[in-house]
From TrEMBL:
Gene Ontology molecular functions: ATP binding; nicotinate-nucleotide adenylyltransferase activity
Pathway the protein takes part in: Cofactor biosynthesis; NAD(+) biosynthesis; deamido-NAD(+) from nicotinate D-ribonucleotide: step 1/1
Phylogenetic placement of the source organism: Bacteria, Pseudomonadati, Pseudomonadota, Gammaproteobacteria, Enterobacterales
Classification via Pfam families: CTP_transf_like
Residue span(s) of domain Cytidyltransferase-like: 7-187
Alphabetical keyword list: ATP-binding, NAD, Nucleotide-binding, Nucleotidyltransferase, Pyridine nucleotide biosynthesis, Transferase
Reactions catalysed according to its record: nicotinate beta-D-ribonucleotide + ATP + H(+) = deamido-NAD(+) + diphosphate
NCBIfam families: cyt_tran_rel, nicotinate (nicotinamide) nucleotide adenylyltransferase, PRK00071.1-1, PRK00071.1-3
Record-stated family: Belongs to the NadD family.
Task performed by this protein: Catalyzes the reversible adenylation of nicotinate mononucleotide (NaMN) to nicotinic acid adenine dinucleotide (NaAD).
Protein name (database record): Probable nicotinate-nucleotide adenylyltransferase
Length: 214
């Protein structure tokens, strides 16, 4: 049986401690050895990231230097078209085979928003959902049907994530970081310090690239 491998998708404009720290705690808790960061292509009709795709990847590289838990997969940026998470997971599943346990990491806000995701009902046939807590978001789903769906798929033993290739939801007990990329960009635009919010190496990169300045 192959080891559980998790993917963590995001815009990462920029990556911050609210991404890194909960995922490190999740990994410790679940015995997860590898987390692949999956920077996404933002669809043209949505507000575009301030940093370019190249800059977002460069910031990921700065953030994970010396952290063997993480690597980066830029496949979603290499396409011209925005990619659905479900499509990326189908491709990964085809590459890795039916038996590989795969996890997809999301924050609590993304879990609540899941019914809006393209073909969200198919996600659990492709991966486990590993959910990090995020302050300021309800812990219950917004409708009784969604709560039932969640309850039906909850993993109660971490072994289920390693022994089965997909199909479970793990609500991790992760430390709360009240940080968002939006707030970091806002602070930078107002010349406010972001020291405790993201790794120093990422701040250095942002300074050098002149990002998030008017
Ligand atoms: P923005 O403020 O630009 O919307 P963000 O800070 O929410 O960005 P994203 O790159 O959109 O970051 O998030 C990627 C993933 O990380 C999502 O699944 C989101 O739920 C999760 N996430 C982001 N910030 C946190 C946080 N502070 N705690 C827990 N999870 C988080």
């Amino acid at each position: 049986m192959s080891e559980l491998h998790a993917l963590f998708g995001g815009t990462f404009d920029p990556i911050h401690f609210g991404h890194l720290r909960p995922v490190e705690a999740l990994a410790q808790q679940t015995g997860l050895q590898k987390v692949t960061l999956l920077p996404n292509n933002v669809p043209p009709h949505r507000p575009q990231p301030e940093a370019s795709a190249t800059q977002r990847v460069a910031m990921l590289r700065c953030a994970i230097a010396g952290l063997p838990l993480f690597d980066i997969d830029t496949r979603e940026l290499e396409r011209d078209t925005p990619s659905w998470t479900v499509t990326t997971l189908e491709n990964l599943r085809a590459e890795r085979g039916a038996q590989q346990p795969l996890g997809f990491i999301i924050g609590q806000d993304s879990l609540l928003n899941l019914p809006k995701w393209h073909r969200w009902q198919d996600l659990l046939s492709l991966c486990h959902l590993l959910v990090c807590q995020r302050p300021g978001y309800p812990t219950r789903m917004s409708s009784p049907e969604m709560q039932r769906w969640l309850d039906q798929h909850l993993a109660h033993d971490v072994k289920q994530l390693h022994l089965q290739p997909a199909g479970h939801i793990w609500l991790a007990e992760t430390p709360l970081y009240d940080i968002s990329a939006t707030e970091i960009r806002r602070r930078r635009h107002h010349n406010q310090s972001c020291d405790a919010l993201l790794p120093a190496a990422v701040i250095d990169y942002i300074d050098r690239a002149g990002l998030y300045r008017d």
